[in-house]
C-alpha cells in the first residue's frame, strides 16, 4: 500500500484517491442531471443544490503557511472531511483545482488534471460564478 505520511501519521493514498473518484462520479451525475433539468434530482444524491455543505472563500493567510486564497466547496465535515479547492485568477478562472481529504491531524491534497479538472472547472464557472455566489462569498470574506 502507498501511504502519505505527515507528522508521524500515515494515510492510505489509495483510500483518498477512491474518495476523490467517488466525489467526481457523484458530481458528474448531478451536473449532467442539472444541465438537462435544473430541478432534477437523484434518488440517492439529491440535487446539485443539496450536494455539499458550503461554498466559501478562504483568504490567504487563514492557515499557517497558506500563501494563496481559494474557494472551498466543502462536501463533508468532521473526521474525516473533504472538499474541493479552486485557486483562481482575478477573473474567477481556476488555474488549479484540488481535492482535499482531512482526517483529524492529517490530510492529503490531490491536484486535479484532465477530465476531472475540466468537470470541476465547468461546475465552478457555470454554477458558482454565473450565479454570483463566488463574488458574494469573496466579498463576505474581506
Summarize the structure.
The protein is of the alpha+beta class and 142 residues long.
Describe this structure in words.
It is a single chain. By secondary structure, the chain is of the alpha+beta class. It has one domain (10-141). It contains 3 helices and 7 strands; from the N terminus they run E-E-H-E-E-E-E-E-H-H. The strands form 2 sheets. The protein has a 5-stranded antiparallel sheet with strand order 3-4-5-6-7. The chain has a two-stranded antiparallel ribbon with strand order 1-2. Helix 1 (13-36) packs across helix 2. The longest helix is centred in the first third of the chain and has 24 residues, at 13-36. It is globular. It starts with a strand and ends with a helix. The model has no long low-confidence stretch (mean pLDDT 89).
Our estimate of the beta-strand percent is 25-35%
**Given the structure, what is the number of helices?**
3
What order do the helices and strands follow?
EEHEEEEEHH
Distance between the termini: 43 Å
Tell me the radius of gyration: 15 Å
Number of DSSP strands? 7
Global shape: globular
Strand line-up of the largest beta sheet: 3-4-5-6-7
Q: Uncertain runs with pLDDT below 50, 5 residues or more?
A: none
What number is the mean pLDDT? 89
Biggest beta sheet summary: 5 strands, antiparallel
Amino acid at each position: 500500500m502507498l501511504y502519505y505520511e505527515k507528522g508521524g501519521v500515515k494515510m492510505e493514498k489509495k483510500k483518498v484517491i477512491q474518495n476523490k473518484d467517488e466525489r467526481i462520479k457523484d458530481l458528474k451525475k448531478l451536473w449532467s442531471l442539472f444541465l438537462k433539468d435544473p430541478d432534477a434530482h437523484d434518488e440517492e444524491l439529491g440535487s446539485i443544490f443539496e450536494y455539499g455543505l458550503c461554498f466559501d472563500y478562504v483568504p490567504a493567510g487563514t492557515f499557517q503557511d497558506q500563501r494563496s486564497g481559494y474557494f472551498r466547496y466543502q462536501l463533508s465535515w468532521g473526521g474525516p472531511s473533504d472538499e474541493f479547492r479552486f485557486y483562481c485568477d482575478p477573473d474567477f478562472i481556476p488555474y488549479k483545482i484540488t481535492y482535499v481529504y482531512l482526517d483529524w491531524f492529517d490530510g492529503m491534497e490531490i491536484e486535479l488534471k484532465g477530465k476531472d479538472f475540466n468537470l470541476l472547472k465547468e461546475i465552478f464557472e457555470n454554477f458558482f460564478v454565473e450565479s454570483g455566489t463566488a463574488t458574494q462569498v469573496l466579498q463576505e470574506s474581506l
